[in-house]
TrEMBL record:
GO biological process: lipid A biosynthetic process; lipopolysaccharide core region biosynthetic process
Active site: E57
Organism field: Campylobacter hominis (strain ATCC BAA-381 / DSM 21671 / CCUG 45161 / LMG 19568 / NCTC 13146 / CH001A)
UniProt domain 3-deoxy-D-manno-octulosonic-acid transferase N-terminal: residue ranges: 30-191
Name of the featured protein: 3-deoxy-D-manno-octulosonic acid transferase
Upper lineage: Bacteria, Pseudomonadati, Campylobacterota, Epsilonproteobacteria, Campylobacterales
UniProt key word Transferase: yes
Domain of life (superkingdom): Bacteria
Recorded family membership: Belongs to the glycosyltransferase group 1 family.
């Protein structure tokens, strides 16, 4: 009761500023929904309720959520909301703490992702008779110091969590110090976020270098700094279809300059040329499967934030990346041997690169089984 009163007073003080912030385009949807319940009714009844924060977490939870027949998703940010809508129709913004005791409805299981440790969320869920799971739990060095300072708060939070699925032994130990019980190590589920090949291409006799997910300015940047051998083949895959034409012109020019053959995948898929433009969606993962080197773009220009390294790492390709991968830090952190370099150092990075490897790989079927067994029901 005291905590809910405290959060209500905090909400009263912050309300004018929140209304002002709601005018910004970035928060126009999320803040009114979370702090004033505008167009944000309770979730429709579902057996399992997943709660995540933003875009990365919503994407990470997708493959696990789809293994259940009846689920809902709550989020914090607008980007998370839009990502969740792509695989679930029952999506809402999670309201601020003072609203949760009457907003949150009963589900059989509540799965909270990583660090969304809100006291009224877990406490209200337990009062509703819900089995509460903390999934993908982690505790970095920096976070652990901060969390220990508020240990009294997190002790109360963990009193209302039935099962903790931690990423590693180190995370489990730190969570136990904070009051967590019934902990199991299940790895990082973000490691399970990859697509499987839809076609099986034979491995080329040449060394295959895939320049993946390029953005404006990156084709020239990468190609101008790429030293290739006679036994090399290049596949260039622009990130967006509207750039296929321009990227193709750049690659064709590069091929002509270096006396190499050029072809577009969509027009001639015999794949005999040394330079191939991958201008068909859904094919990139098929070439990751046979790639020797992947130059992962969106990371050599400072306006994208990088792309997911899990897919090429799943196949053990050597991965070269620029330094601008700020939107993918969590995923980069679970892939071993990514070579980070400036564009001018690409060829040098390729020479010293090693096969990539995913750390803390999760088995989503096993996680589903653990959740159902601990809850005592199949969902």
């Amino acid at each position: 009761m005291f905590y809910t009163l405290f959060t209500f007073l905090a909400w009263l003080l912050a309300a004018p500023f929140l209304l002002l912030a709601s005018m910004a385009r970035k928060y126009r949807k999320s803040l009114p929904a979370r702090f004033f319940l505008i167009k944000n009714p309770p979730l429709k009844p579902a057996k399992i309720h997943f709660h995540v924060c933003s875009l990365g977490e919503a994407v990470a939870i997708k493959n696990l959520a789809l293994k259940f027949n009846d689920f809902s998703v709550s989020v914090i940010t607008a980007t998370g909301f839009n990502a969740a809508l792509k695989f679930c129709k029952n999506v809402r913004f999670l309201p601020f703490e003072n609203f949760l005791p009457f907003w949150l409805k009963k589900s059989e299981i509540l799965v909270i992702f990583e660090a969304e440790l809100w006291l009224n969320l877990v406490r209200s869920a337990k009062k509703n008779g819900t089995f509460v799971v903390l999934l993908n739990a982690r505790m970095s060095d920096r976070s652990f110091k901060r969390y220990k300072f508020f240990k009294f708060y997190y002790k109360k939070v963990f009193e209302n969590i039935d099962l903790v699925l931690a990423q590693s032994d180190k995370d489990a130990l730190r969570l136990e110090i904070l009051g967590a019980e019934n902990i199991k190590i299940t790895g990082n589920i973000k490691s399970a976020n990859f697509s499987k090949p839809t076609k099986n291409y034979a491995k080329f006799k040449e060394r295959l270098i895939v320049i993946a997910s390029t953005h404006e300015g990156e084709e020239e940047l990468v190609l101008n700094n790429l030293e290739i051998n006679q036994n090399d083949k290049i596949i260039l895959a622009p990130r967006h279809p509207e750039r296929f034409k321009k990227a193709g012109e750049i690659l064709a020019k590069y091929a002509k300059k270096n006396a190499l053959k050029f072809e577009k995948f969509s027009q001639n898929s015999d794949l005999k040329s040394e330079c191939i433009l991958l201008d068909t969606l859904g094919e990139l993962v098929n070439f990751y499967a046979i790639a020797d080197v992947v130059i992962l773009c969106g990371s050599f220009v400072n306006n994208v934030g990088g792309h997911n390294p899990i897919e090429p790492a799943y196949f053990g390709a050597k991965i070269i990346s620029g330094k601008y991968f700020y939107n993918q830090k969590a995923l980069y952190g679970i892939v071993k041997n990514i070579e980070i370099c400036e564009a001018t150092e690409i060829s040098k990075a390729i020479k010293k690169s090693r096969r990539s490897e995913i750390l803390n790989i999760s088995n989503l079927d096993e996680i589903k089984k653990i959740i159902e067994e601990k809850n005592g029901k199949s969902i």
